[in-house]
């Protein structure tokens, strides 16, 4: 059996205790006496034993976390041979290392501690271990490092056989024999070498095997069969594919994730550590600052963490500067040419390393490799077959070719998601793209690539059934880099605009789903430019692009009038096409454009039309969306009880049904958004405890989703506003900062500006008037360029801030502006509070002179709050009236009006306004 020495010792211990339980501790004491062994090492050796048992692997039982039991009846037999016992422990001579020809390790092997340990475990568990991976990944260095540590376990030493210089596979046996010093007469073959090695206890490193792989596989298989005490470690870009072989795919060094700039974070990655160490070795004065480290992180990512490429880049950085290398990576093969003089010729430049392997590929595999370079985001078998359409390759041939390229380390299996998918490392892809251009195939491959993704994503309305499942948005998202490449080619001078327009229409919902609204806007604008107006055949395409573009303009705070024009035209086209779904989609965005700045009357008309459409098409998805829009409209127009009814209908529904339109096209979590709006409706009615519960629950519902853009309205309508108004300033501060951070990361300028308005409101509410005014003015400047974001509410907050700093005349002007806007659009939810604030400012300006006017404001505010059913506003008005009455010395008259409002509350007694009311009531006489 091709079982390693340590693994055989594991078998021995288990056989000696056959059918008895053997603890892990006992196993470690017997097999690794005096050594510290981790769980991983034991697992590797147990796996090797199971593999050797083959169909009888069930005999080895595991008690999780405790130990093992070997079932069956076992009879030890002594092999009849004059050779030494096959697995006897070697007799070591203290201080005398076993013979070997390993080169000295001049530099430290960076970032390979875990890999070394794993390879050592494999070599002691299996008798044939192959280290594989692309050129420059560090296979040889890792093999030497790992095997050098194991030399004391091999009494006849360790020997490395360099095969890179061989051009004739027939010379492999004689090269091995020469390295081992074997004296062989006659023809030298794998058999004769194996017989000469016989029972020697040694480890053989066969280095750089890929170009003589068949001869090496034959020799390794023969040595395994004939020489029971010989272990073999092969380094190769292609695996040997022999019985008993254990394959270790050498990973690249670890690289920092994009977007992380902290020096301490960047320096903890092995790729960066190697770059810095090698640069310092060539330039003793090199000391990277924060900017250098950020550039080094970028370089390491683009070089895929490949040690050879990083060393070449470091050599250049020692002369050209880090920024010079980062700027030159576009032409990496010309830049990375300063390898060590003592290195093999094929390792002195990055291009030479890849040329060596490329020359070994058959023509068909070279052809496939360069076509696969057209995929920046990985590929499936179907996608790869599509780009080979003109070559005569069918799916079976493509699959075989990919399997061969993967075995030779050109292609890597992508394990990040479900389904069979492959990818090229960035460096390999850059090399293959050069080959694609050299063969004048770039545009052919790009066209096949673009057509494949157009057909993959084309919505059913265009007459082609999509290949992707409606319930699998992850697959849609996963192809974004391929879609970007397809669109870039389609709209290039060599491309096909028609393909690009179709693909833009098909993929627009995915950009929205991913919260990439800026990209959606730019792509849709470009596609619209390619459509001739007034062409009947283009009507549907134009309509769908207009709807997607208007939504993107809204989120990115583009010109609102442009968005309205686009949506108006889209609704007209949808009417002409009798497409009710498109009408609902266009009207939903138009409604949001009306709601946010407070155009309540127009918003209500649009919301009612959406509800009518939803009932006509009898679609539960559209109906839930209609309820949400109506709830939002009623809420902002000061009708919280009616809004509550619509929002609770959504929450009573079983959930958004599955399907393309619910998962991708609507890009919403109806329940979470409805909860946030419901929280606001409950708070207005004085049910603050319930409101806080719903607001927190809305955030919890969105925790496990990737709808980051949806988080913005949930925060805005829910916890940010409620925590501010109820006096929970710590929560408000944290969640408003979260809203701004998320919006900023998504380029969602609309929600970022809305967050800054809320930040200013929070500062004013807690008495930080000067800072609050600065934040509010900045927000008004940003929002005023295109939008009036909830203008009356934040004008009222501005007035409070101005009054707090003694600028009473300016405060009254701001309030008049806000109230005029309310009258123009139909009074909204904040109108009672605006009137109350105006009364307070009038009293602050000159109490005696303006008392009647202030009382009139309070009376209007109270009446309006009662009509709205907004008990929270009633409480604030009652507090203002009570304080005014007390200031006039009419203490006995102050209690009854305040108490009548206070007594209607059933919860929320810990909020700031309720505590203020209770304190005042306790001070007033009965």
Annotation keywords:
mainly alpha; Arc Repressor Mutant, subunit A; 5-stranded parallel beta sheet; 44 helices; 10 strands
The end-to-end span amounts to 98 Å
Strand order of the largest sheet: 5-6-7-4-8
Shape: elongated
User: Approximately how much beta-strand content do the residues carry?
Assistant: under 5%
CATH class of the domain at 113-249: Alpha Beta
Q: Which residues form runs of ≥5 with pLDDT under 50?
A: 81-93, 460-467, 656-668
Derived from helix and strand composition plus strand pairing, the structural class reads: mainly alpha
Assembly type of the chains comes to: single chain
The amount of helix comes to 55-70%
Counted by DSSP, the helix tally is: 44
CATH topology (fold) name of the domain at 113-249: Rossmann fold
**Overall radius of gyration:** 37 Å
Q: What is the CATH superfamily of the domain at 113-249?
A: P-loop containing nucleotide triphosphate hydrolases
The mean pLDDT is 87
Q: Give the number of DSSP strands.
A: 10
Task: Examine the secondary-structure arrangement and name the CATH architecture of the domain at 113-249.
Answer: 3-Layer(aba) Sandwich
The main β sheet shows up as: 5 strands, parallel
